[in-house]
Design a protein that fits this description.
Oligomer: single chain
Number of strands: 7
Radius of gyration: 18 Å
CATH architecture: 3-Layer(aba) Sandwich
CATH topology: Rossmann fold
Bound molecules: S-adenosylmethionine
Largest sheet: 7 strands, mixed
Helix content: 40-55%
Strand content: 15-25%
Distance between the termini: 26 Å
Length: 268
Amino acid sequence: MMTQLANDFRSRVQAYTPTAEHHDRLFAEFTTLTWADPVLAAHRRHVESEKLGFGDPAFHALWARLLATAVADFGPVDALEIGVFKGQIISLWALLATTHNWPVRVHALTPLTGAPLPPPSLWRSLLFRFNARFRERVQSGDFYADADYENIIRAHFTHHHLRFEDVRLSRGYSTDPALRTRLAHERFHLIYIDGDHTYEGALADIEQYAPKIVPGGWLVMDDASFDQLGTVFWKGYASVARACHRLPELGFKNVLTIGHNRVFQRQR
Ligand SMILES: C[S@@+](CC[C@H](N)C(=O)[O-])C[C@H]1O[C@@H](n2cnc3c(N)ncnc32)[C@H](O)[C@@H]1O
């Protein structure tokens, strides 16, 4: 299974061209692949019915292929998600690892708290009008209702008979100096950036965390296809797409795009 998935991923990378027609076709094919795989389909159905995450079903098929390729290329894999919300992706990684017996260590960097949008008021209107950072946070969906995210994620893992205790959790924001120090020497084969979607926030995550990816490893940027061609998928935010312009200078190449998930590989 691993070899088959990895070969499929590699052949898609080889054939990849960033045209509208190709992006639309890949998105449709990966959506079909997710629903045709019983493990991916059951996981995604649960996410949708319990409202446990965003994104498109097509991403599940991407993760299965990317994780398989990472294991095929590197053996034991360290995979980090920045911005976990209710655990859709880390639980999917853990489920894939358990199902296929893949050696994947799941890392998560996320606050596990909400950041609620202030209720409508004159103050909020003024903030929106005169504070560019607040306006960008609103426009890039950077507010989350208060909830017990840790319990929600634990329940999510339990539903799939997975152990949340095995996740290497860094609780906090990716900009937190103490967390940055603690992670200073960590290296990853795979990082998924899906935290702060403002330009400044996404760029900070790219500059701080992309260099931790080993040569040949991958960075997946969520909500990053605003300036990409395509007609059948939501493309994310201009802010995140603009932050991705920094990636070529850091040695990353956009090797595949599925909807608003863009896969960058660190060149060897
Ligand atoms: C769009 S949601 C993530 C969705 C999740 N990746 C999924 O696929 O279901 C963004 C998450 O990032 C968190 N977040 C926001 N800014 C962050 C930061 N600077 N560092 C880490 N997490 C952040 C939010 O609390 C929220 O849980």
